[in-house]
Amino acid sequence: MELADFPRLKILFLDDTPVAGDIRNIRANDFPALQSLYLPKNVRGGSEYKFQQISEVPSFMQTIHLLLQRTPTLFSKYCLSPAFDWTLSEDSPDWYEEDESKI
Question: Residue 48: how many CB atoms within 10 A of its CB?
Fold first, then answer.
C-alpha cells in the first residue's frame, strides 16, 4: 500500500519517521485533498535534506513550484524556510570552505 492510495488525506506530517523517498515522485494527481505537507530529511527534498550537487536543486524547486500552484497553502503551517531547510552536503564535490580572511 502506498500513501498515494489515500485520496482524502488532508495532512501528511512525517517528521521523525523512517519514511524515505523523493519529493519529485509526488505527482499532480497524488493526494488531491492534501492541505498540509511536511517531509523528513530521509526524503530527498524533505526538511533538512542535504544535496550532493548544486545541479540537483532546480528539479526539486520545479516540484515545489508545481505543488504550490496546486495547493498554495501546502507548506504555510511550517513556512517555506523550515519546510525546506536544505543544505549542500560537505561530502559534495561542489562544497567549498569559505575563506574568512577575505571577508
Answer: 14
- Would strands 43-44 and 36-38 be described as parallel, antiparallel, or unpaired? unpaired
Quick count: other Cβ atoms within 10 Å of Cβ 10?
10
**DSSP conformation class of 23:** G
Amino acid at 98: E
What pTM was computed for the model? 0.76
Taking only the tens place, the pLDDT of each residue in 22-70 is 999 988 788 889 888 888 889 998 888 999 999 999 999 999 899 889 8
Q: Grid coordinates standing for 49?
A: 535534506
- Using DSSP's 3-state secondary structure scheme, residue 48 falls into coil
60: Cβ contacts below 8 Å, ≥ 6 apart: 23, 24, 44, 45, 86
